[in-house]
Amino acid sequence: MTQSPRNGTIAGLIIAAVFLAACGSVSWTETSTLSSLPTTAASDGTSPSNSTADVTTTTTTTTTTTTAPQPTNILVIGDFGDGGGNERAVAAAMEDYASMTPIAALVTTGDNLYTDDVAAAWEEPFGWVVAMGIPVYAAWGKHDLESSSRREAVADALDPPGRWYEAQLGEATLIVLDANQVEDPDQLAWLESVLSEPRNGPLIVSFHQPALSCASHGSTGAAISTWAPLFEAHGVDLVLNGHDHDYERFELNGVTYVVTGGGGRTLYEIGTCPSGTLQPLVGDDTHHHFVGLHITADGITVEALAPDGEVIDEFSLPLHP
Ligand SMILES: [Fe+2]
Q1: Rounded distance, CA 97 to CA 103, Å?
Q2: CA 133, CA 245: separation in Å to the nearest integer?
Q3: What is the mean pLDDT of residues 208-222?
Q4: How many angstroms does the Cα of residue 162 sit away from the middle of ligand 1?
Q5: Protein residues with C-beta less than 5 angstroms from the ion ligand 1
Q6: Closest listed residue to residue 177, CA positions, set 200, 199, 204
Q7: What predicted TM-score, i.e. pTM, was given to this entire model?
Q8: Confidence of residue 66 (pLDDT cuts 50, 70, 90)
């Protein structure tokens, strides 16, 4: 069978279109020459200008398919590493979540290990994190520092790059602080320096002892007096804390503070906030949970989920102007 040149051109165009479609944009130009077209009068009654000449028609077709930018998905957990059933249930739910949603990082709000048994408290429940190649950005909790052996276990298992550090999470910048030493002058100078750098994307800060909480440990006065004004001045969008084993969400002077300390350890009751202090917008002290962040250049959406999939909280933070 003889394939006509025209059919060959079409086949080539289809192949090119399929290839380019995979790249998100299709653009092609088709030129065809038709000989000795029958002449017709122009609709205005004038004579056709090329009644006997070949007529060349050129058709340019451009189709652009735009794909919405995919968010950077982050998992967050705090106060979890005791090797117990609650930790395992939360870890299993997170693994299910990660099997359906590409995860760029695991962020912790501290108390990563309550035991030196790293196998039971980290490797077994969270082996999928390493298997999936998910980087971990851990904050140092109180229990992570309670002995030299614990400190070494946390360093070996979760490998935080320092006591305070920053990391890039897609469009967002993550700043991890050590709230065991809020007033350390070196840490404060570093925080002021890193917050002063020009940035475009969302700013997320994580540390263990909560700036704001109405549960048993309560708010950390030094974090409110020392760090919160810097967060406000430099447009921090979201602060993630642990230490109190519950879920709480606050908003203070344009900054959203989330306590996510329900990763496995026994839950704490959210009590009555001291008079004159901020009340949580949302509070839950009956579910272990983890948090999912979905980051784009425009902001962050946040969901807090129990192991059975129940949504404890869900909200969006548009990027600070
Ligand atoms: Fe804890």
Answers
A1: 9
A2: 28
A3: 97
A4: 20
A5: 79, 111
A6: 204
A7: 0.80
A8: low
